[in-house]
Design a protein that fits this description.
36% helix, 27 strands, Nucleotidyltransferase, domain 5, 718 residues, Rossmann fold, 25 helices, alpha/beta
Length: 718
């Protein structure tokens, strides 16, 4: 070895067994890395076959995806394939409602893959009701490219670089490819493939001459922001919207309207300047007035070319025999025969008579697997249909399989669920005030043995809406009460309230750098044991005030709403303050309104319209196995929020609205809406929230005044 022009002898490493083994391992790993980095791409096995199949969608699917489509396509499937092809090739919109399990999602995935491999599509976005559902479709497309042998033979420029990763996606960043271009046959060497094969977005290998070089498949949930989606200076060519409806959108008109606008406006704006985006909506109807029903109805959305497909196109002539079969099958299963042997024999012996006149969309759709006694599980698609009727009922089958939901005469709930509340988290830890929050409020619900409290921080976002962060909630125990007696109860409640006040003073809520933010207003339930609450508020100071709610959900109507000098004004504003008979001030509110408002904000996207979020880190989805520990810890709080729900029910042709109690544990719901009510009095205006008002001035001066001597909450009228 030469150093500064002089030759220096280097010491040789001893030739030991250990050193030799180390050298062999080094060479072996160098070879492994080299093989993973340098990939030779074979020529297309049959270019003529590939070109001919690309001209025929049905033949392409049957040849390259024969594991899924092993029989000739039915008329309905051919219509779906043609509709999807039309949208992809010529733009426009297609809305298809097919039976659950009919294969509409798989057909759309394979069609997207075909036209991407052909080079006609360069950017596809798969939309699901949630992000997790959209990722499932992307995983299906990845699996086809990784494992399909026929596809690898004719599309080696895409499949071979992916297979060379050997389940190590990081290799895609430094992989080099050599071979012959597919477009002109010229050779190339050591070209960087530069692609991505993990996460929620994949980019196909940038192989020279490949029609699909750099094509993108991305996923998004319809519960997230969709505007401004572009990658690598590419605009979206095709958006596939798969089963957009959720429990919330099906049962809530407001949530349904937001979803409809997101599809009609947000997704429609993703295309480029020269070509509008092609949108394909695949769904199964859940209600007659759900979002999917609107988009598949040519009268309501004519530009979407909506089509609805049924499983049972024409019922059999002897429906009575089918009903007899259903009753017999249910009876067999109720008596311990899960395979309903007697019912099966009845169908087998009378199959020709039972199935006469019936027309099903897909005659191949039934289970041929043998049962323990050797007979097949099902004999025909029609039997499969009526097996489902026996299992889940005719109403559910008409909805899920025939896209013909029943008339909506049942009770419709607001759509809020505990899962929705649990999973709406901010990413900030418990007790920390998020950056930008300027208002802090607290609501307290008073019970004999405990005080349930909720603290919320409020931030005005750039979009002009306020976001409410529930940064903490909990229970303050009431000590010193006697079961079955009210002796000493008022004193115990006052002590508990003071204990809660001292806890806040000892450890105030603060932002991440330790800067504290004081609670501007605390509202305490005074409907029960009002003397104790009044006493505490007078002792605690100007940020603590009693509040009382009225409404049908509580079984009461406020006297002040009826006797106020301008009741229409009071009801229009939903809350007002008035002096107490013993001095001081009392906040009155329409509890029904604020509870409904609470639910509405939990079902709103806080990034777009202003809404509520809980503290804690988010998980990966809404299934319990995908939830974070923080989300799971909110279960009790979420069930309190959903303990009462607003429902609608048609009565003599008129929709009647009322409150339904699901359980008695609604204390954090009451505390939460009081925290929101307090925010309204502090100037926070969420989307749709009216401002509070003062009662008419009275001669008696309040005992509680502001620091400058003015009465509490004497504000200029808006």
């Amino acid at each position: 070895m030469s150093i500064f022009g002089q030759t220096v002898q280097t010491a040789k490493r001893p030739t030991t067994k250990k050193n030799l083994e180390r050298d062999r391992n080094t060479e072996r790993m160098r070879g492994v890395r080299s093989r993973g980095r340098e990939v030779v791409i074979a020529k297309c096995a049959d270019p003529k076959r590939r070109a001919e199949l690309e001209l025929d969608d049905f033949a392409w699917l049957r040849y390259y995806c024969g594991d899924l489509f092993w029989y000739q396509f039915t008329l309905q499937q051919r219509e779906m394939i043609t509709a999807i092809c039309t949208a992809i090739r010529f733009g426009g919109d297609q809305a298809l409602a097919a039976s659950r399990g009919e294969g509409k999602t798989k057909i759309s995935e394979r069609m997207l893959l075909k036209y991407t491999l052909c080079g006609l599509v360069s950017f596809v976005v798969l939309f699901g009701a949630t992000g997790g559902k959209a990722v499932d479709s992307l995983a299906s497309i990845r699996q086809v490219i990784e494992t399909n042998a026929r596809l690898c033979e004719d599309y080696p420029e895409v499949c071979i670089p992916v297979r060379a990763l050997e389940n190590t996606p990081n290799r895609a960043h430094y992989q080099m490819v050599s071979g012959f271009r597919h477009d002109n046959g010229e050779s190339f060497s050591y070209a960087p493939s530069r692609f991505c094969w993990c996460g929620h977005e994949i980019i196909l290998p940038n192989v020279p001459g490949s029609p699909a070089a750099g094509a993108i498949f991305a996923t998004r949930g319809l519960d997230a922001e969709v505007r401004g989606l572009n990658k690598l200076d590419k605009r979206v060519d095709v958006a596939v919207i798969d089963d957009p409806d959720t429990e919330e959108t099906v049962n809530s008109e407001e949530q349904a309207l937001k979803l409809e606008k997101r599809i009609d406006r947000g997704i429609a704006g993703l295309g480029g300047q020269q070509r509008s985006i092609a949108r394909v909506l695949l769904t199964t109807l859940q209600r007659r007035r759900c979002v999917s029903a609107k988009f598949t109805d040519p009268k309501e959305k004519p530009s979407w070319n909506g089509k609805r497909f049924r499983f049972l196109i024409k019922p059999p002539d002897r429906v009575d025999l089918c009903e007899e079969y259903v009753a017999l099958r249910r009876s067999n299963q109720e008596h311990g025969d899960p395979h309903a042997t007697e019912a099966f024999n009845f169908w087998r012996d009378n199959q020709a008579i039972i199935e006469a006149g019936a027309v099903v969309a897909n005659p191949h759709r039934y289970n041929r697997d043998p049962l323990p006694d050797g007979r097949p599980t099902e004999l025909s698609a029609l039997q499969r249909y009526y097996n489902e009727v026996a299992r889940i009922g005719q109403e559910a089958v008409s909805t899920e399989f025939d896209n013909d939901p029943p008339e909506e005469t049942r009770i419709q709930e607001s759509g809020i669920t505990p899962t929705r509340v649990m999973c709406q988290v901010s990413g900030y830890p418990r007790g920390q005030v998020p950056p930008g929050c300027t208002v802090l409020t607290q609501g307290i619900d008073v019970k004999k043995i405990a005080l349930h409290w909720v603290v919320r921080a409020w931030r005005l976002d750039p979009n002009g809406f306020w976001t409410g962060f529930t940064i903490a909630y909990g229970v303050q125990e009431v000590h010193g009460t006697t079961r079955g007696s009210d002796e000493g109860l008022d004193a115990a409640l006052v002590r508990a309230l003071h204990a809660r006040r001292v806890a806040i003073e000892d450890k105030p809520y603060a932002v991440a750098d330790g800067t504290p933010l004081e609670i501007q207003l605390n509202l305490i339930d005074s409907k029960w044991r009002k003397e104790a609450v009044f006493r505490f508020c007078d002792e605690a100071g100007q940020t603590w005030y009693p509040a009382i709610g009225y409404g049908r959900s509580l079984g009461t109507i406020a006297p002040n709403f009826r006797e106020a000098t301008s009741p229409s004004k009071v009801m229009g504003w939903q809350s007002f303050s008035a002096p107490r008979t013993d001095g001081g001030w009392l906040i009155h509110s329409n509890a029904d309104y604020y509870k409904a408002f609470e639910h509405d904000r939990w079902m709103s996207d806080p990034r777009s319209f202003g809404g509520f979020v809980l503290y804690g880190e988010p998980g990966r989805g809404t299934r319990r196995s995908e939830m974070s520990d923080d989300e799971k810890s909110h279960m009790a709080y979420a069930h309190h929020i959903c303990a009462e729900i607003e429902v609608e029910e048609p009565v003599r042709g008129v929709m009647k609205r009322y409150w339904k109690t699901k359980n008695d544990n609604n204390h954090w719901l009451d505390a939460s809406y009081r925290a929101t009510l307090a925010a309204a009095w502090c100037g926070v205006r969420l989307y749709g929230m009216p401002a509070p008002v003062l009662d008419e001035p009275v001669e008696q001066a309040p005992t509680v005044t502001m620091p400058d001597g003015s009465p509490f909450f004497v504000l200029d009228r808006v």
